[in-house]
Amino acid sequence: MNTVLVVDDEATIRRLARVALEQAGLRVLEAGDGASALETARTQRPDLILLDVAMPRMSGLEVCRRLRETPSTAKILVLLITGLLDQARQDAIAQVGAAGVVAKPFTPASLVRRVAATLHSEVTLAAR
Questions:
Q1: Overall number of domains in the chain
Q2: Which residue from 2, 25, 47, 115 lies 20 to 30 Å from 126 (Cα-Cα)?
Q3: Is-contact 40 29, C-beta < 8 A?
């Protein structure tokens, strides 16, 4: 069973994602800020992290950058969640090594499809 860490400072978003992903058969962990996300990623080693870009104290971009710098978390798949996807944000996302983006607002079904596609593509690549 794949594990997904959902990181967002909004409890409602975390809850929505948890319900949708658990119904899809995934194990879900939660973190409400960047520091907690880094600690959970180090200790629990999720298969994928859904990471909000706009969080107080430490942005999702900074969390992703730190994940990539740490050998034990460098290979974890990251999907960044954002409500703003202008060219500057797209460039910043590309620079931190995220696997992709989930645009807000999202539906539970679209979230599950995006997570499943990302996990599946990683499994397919690893099998080659």
A1: 1
A2: 25
A3: yes
